[in-house]
UniProtKB/TrEMBL annotation:
<dbReference type="InterPro" id="IPR044068">
    <property type="entry name" value="CB"/>
</dbReference>
<dbReference type="InterPro" id="IPR050090">
    <property type="entry name" value="Tyrosine_recombinase_XerCD"/>
</dbReference>
<feature type="domain" description="Tyr recombinase">
    <location>
        <begin position="217"/>
        <end position="404"/>
    </location>
</feature>
<dbReference type="GO" id="GO:0003677">
    <property type="term" value="F:DNA binding"/>
</dbReference>
<feature type="domain" description="Core-binding (CB)">
    <location>
        <begin position="111"/>
        <end position="194"/>
    </location>
</feature>
<dbReference type="GO" id="GO:0006310">
    <property type="term" value="P:DNA recombination"/>
</dbReference>
<keyword id="KW-0238">DNA-binding</keyword>
<dbReference type="GO" id="GO:0015074">
    <property type="term" value="P:DNA integration"/>
</dbReference>
<protein>
    <submittedName>
        <fullName>Tyrosine-type recombinase/integrase</fullName>
    </submittedName>
</protein>
<dbReference type="InterPro" id="IPR002104">
    <property type="entry name" value="Integrase_catalytic"/>
</dbReference>
<dbReference type="Pfam" id="PF00589">
    <property type="entry name" value="Phage_integrase"/>
</dbReference>
Length: 410
């Protein structure tokens, strides 16, 4: 039931709650300024209480914002105003401030395919697919389902080889790596239908195979002086800087994946043996990393002097309330971007510069030092050396060693 408070009292209570939740003073001041404008606007409309209609009218008149923010992505220039108005509505109804992430509307499965799609998703979960991998796989599949729906197909048993062929023609404009992924997704789904008696024939054999060689793109790498410059520009007197420095060291010095950095727990740090023992999120294998001196002291500095008081079991958490672990889809891209800009490191459009590129740089550096590929593979947590071999392409000196002298042949 809604708690009907006069707008002035409602805004006052919200500001008190923001303070209790340890929101930054600048953030609270931003809320206070908008609430004052909202109060004046309500008085002009002769309104005493907050309502959804009043909030929408305020956003429309003051910010020219007419979107349905429950279903549509927030425009960057008004998302803070929308958030503040949404906080008023939430507090009036629930008496608490809800952390809200606006997402795109969820995919609506056509009714005739809903049961089989749910069964397939359950099968993927039983096969222990990673959440990220499963999400991408299902999203690719939805395009095929939409195609069938447009063709008025009423059941998966009505799918024919001609339909599959016609659909495959529609994906030709995609990049060849995307085409390969789409075909694989389609093949696996059709095989699932056959094995579970949804179709009489195994239609997966009608999905064409893509004849291509294994040639992954050349990894983007940083020069060692660029990595050093980026680390040196971090303000380690600042709590956020302490956290970010420890994160970047783990990736740059040990090659820890971003997903494993986010999932790193306090219990994974064995200070007696100076080891980090984790089960990798991607490969599900147990890996041991040494706590090198600079990494160890960076983590200690962060834990003792910067990490907010929290019951979270994870080492690295948000620095603003609520103090909890990073979101499941967070790639921490903003961390490395922030410090490359501060360091004045030029970034070209073609170069990838996410945290994963620091892993590439570590592998390339180890290769230059003559470290064997199997050892680099073990350090990076690759299941086989084939994944690691792509770093040969980043090392001119190592490629020269592989070259054949024409004189020897002749």
């Amino acid at each position: 039931m809604e708690r009907k408070l006069p707008l002035v009292e409602l805004t006052t209570n919200v500001l008190i709650e923001l303070k209790r939740l340890n929101y930054a003073d600048n953030t609270i001041n931003s809320y206070r300024r908008l609430f004052k404008r909202m109060t004046v606007f309500a008085a002009e409309k002769d309104e005493t209480y907050f309502s959804e209609n009043l909030g929408n009218d305020f956003l429309k008149e003051k910010y020219n914002c007419t979107i349905n923010y429950y279903e549509e992505a927030m425009p960057k220039n008004v998302k803070h105003a929308i958030r503040m108005i949404r906080v008023l509505g939430d507090y009036q109804i629930h008496g608490v401030i809800i952390r809200r992430i606006v997402k795109k509307p969820q995919y609506v499965k056509p009714l005739q395919f809903e049961a089989v799609l749910n069964a397939y998703e359950k099968e993927c979960e039983l096969n222990d697919y990673s959440k990220r991998g499963m999400r991408t796989r299902v999203q690719r599949l939805f395009f095929f389902i939409d195609y069938l729906n447009l063709r008025k197909v009423q059941a998966v048993g009505d799918v024919s080889a001609d339909m599959i062929s016609d659909y495959v023609k529609t994906i030709f404009p995609h990049h060849e790596k995307s085409i390969a992924s789409i075909l694989t997704t389609l093949r696996v789904f059709l095989k699932f239908l056959y094995l579970n008696n949804y179709t009489e024939k195994d239609l997966s054999i009608n999905v064409p195979k893509q004849n291509k060689y294994y040639y992954p793109s050349i990894p983007s790498i940083w020069r060692s002086e660029e990595v050093r410059c980026m680390l040196e520009c971090i303000d380690r007197g600042n709590p956020t800087g302490k956290r970010d420095y420890a994160i970047l060291l783990l990736v740059a010095r040990l090659g820890v994946r971003v997903g494993d950095v986010k999932k790193l727990k306090l219990s994974d740090l064995n200070w007696n043996t100076k080891l980090i023992i984790i089960t990798q999120e991607k490969t599900k294998t147990t890996t041991t990393y040494p706590i090198l001196n600079d990494i160890g002291w960076a983590i200690i500095d962060y834990l003792k002097n910067a990490r907010p008081i929290s019951n979270s079991p994870y080492v690295f958490i948000r620095m603003h309330a609520p103090y909890e672990s990073f979101g499941k889809d967070a790639n921490l891209y903003n961390i490395i971007t922030k410090y490359t800009r501060l360091a004045g490191i030029p970034i070209t459009k073609e170069k990838r510069h996410g945290l994963h590129s620091l892993r590439h740089s570590l592998a390339s550096g180890l290769l230059e030092q003559g470290t064997p590929l199997p050892i680099i593979s073990e350090i990076l947590g690759h299941l086989n050396s084939k994944s690691t071999s792509i770093y040969l392409q980043t090392s001119i000196e190592r490629l020269r060693l592989c070259a054949i002298d024409p004189e020897d042949i002749l």
